[in-house]
Design brief:
about 45% helix; alpha+beta; DNA binding; DNA-binding protein; DNA-binding; 3 helices; about 80 residues
């Protein structure tokens, strides 16, 4: 599915001008139809999967309790 720069920027939570800079730099692949750039949204599937996985890992880390008694010997 092809999306405009504005739609893509909204989907990946990035300013439109930054999306355009990435297109010009070749970091985001796009097609110019004579009026606007169209971006195939399937190239961001891996990005969305990694973002979801990282959010899950952070939530697990936040919910992990801190051990009550840490057996640390004071060398002083």
């Amino acid at each position: 599915m092809y999306k405009t720069v504005a739609e893509t920027a909204k989907d990946i939570s990035m300013p439109e001008d930054q999306v355009l800079r990435y297109i010009y730099a070749g970091r985001i692949k796009a097609v110019y139809d004579g009026e606007q750039y169209l971006i195939n949204s399937s190239q961001f599937d891996t990005y969305h999967e990694q973002l979801a996985r990282i959010k899950e890992e952070i939530e697990i880390w936040r919910n992990t309790p801190i051990p009550e008694d840490i057996d640390v010997k004071d060398e002083d």
